[in-house]
Amino acid sequence: MPLKSRHKKLIRIFIRFFLGPVLFAWLSYSIYKQIQQQPHLESSWHALKHSMSSTMWWILPLVFLGMILNWSIESVKWMLVVKRIQPVKFITACKAVLSGLSFSVTTPNRVGEYLGRVLYMDDGNRMKAISLTITGSISQLITTLFMGLMALLVLKDPLSNSGLVSSFWYSSILYGTLFVTVILTVFYFRINWLVRWVDRLPGNHRYKWLIETLESFDATILTQLLSLSAARFVIFILQYWLLCSLFDVEISWWDCYWTVSLSYLVMAAIPTIALFTDLSLRGTVSIQLLGIYSSNHLGIGLAAASMWLINLIIPALAGSLLILGIGRIIRKNGKDSAAEQNNRSD
Q1: Could you tell me which residues are beta bridge partners of residue 108?
Q2: Could you state, in order of their start, the residue ranges of all structural domains in the chain?
Q3: Do 148 and 261 touch, CB atoms closer than 8 A?
């Protein structure tokens, strides 16, 4: 057996029979520990059972539907960006997104997401896919920054009256967010500048091939990515508002939209490892901000924990199980690549 084929076989065995099961077991145990360490766990459990037995139980299936829609939109985004180097089917994109999520929850700021996704690409396209995937992530970050910026303007008086932030820090955060949003947006719509800059570097031929596909990104595709990111953002907040209703948190849609938008801005600004610090941080930030309008801190905490569990942890667990089948995909992609090379040589 050739050395390269032997290495590929070892990688498939490692992913299928070690990485996938270990990742699933680790996620399951870590989630259990995270939930067990939450304060007021017993009262939260009783409140959760009460909510499930109330007439508002129908909200939960809607929130799960929102989760499916959300990650489906993210899959469409990924299809749009990687089709420049390799067309993928929708179901493959869904698997890649969920697999990436399973890696991301144990890495700082979810950088492991790219590793999980590129495993579904052909051998020669995996490194190129990383730069394309980052572009899709930037579109989501711009949406979060813009909505957070608008939330700062809308909530100026409530934030000042509540004493959460002084006028100095409010102005610093506002203008800092504005600066970063403008710079990132300009860079996003002029992403071909990056390719030109790399082209001027000494020895650029070693790196340019990784990002040269970005030159094909025009304003149309970049606007499409931003629109899909905005749709995901609205769905996130709709889920949050529904969960607040389920757990008796009395807050209007308008107030919920802007307070949650601001909480996502805070979450984006603080480096975290989603599995280990995200739950406690979400709860703290949500209670501080939504607490401006509601004194039901337990309900706010339950809504935040439910968002974390439904939108992040359950899909991540599903993605860890999907990793078991990646070995077969790598083998198939390897055969397809070999066949393509043979056709070219003929």
Answers
A1: 273
A2: 3-335
A3: yes
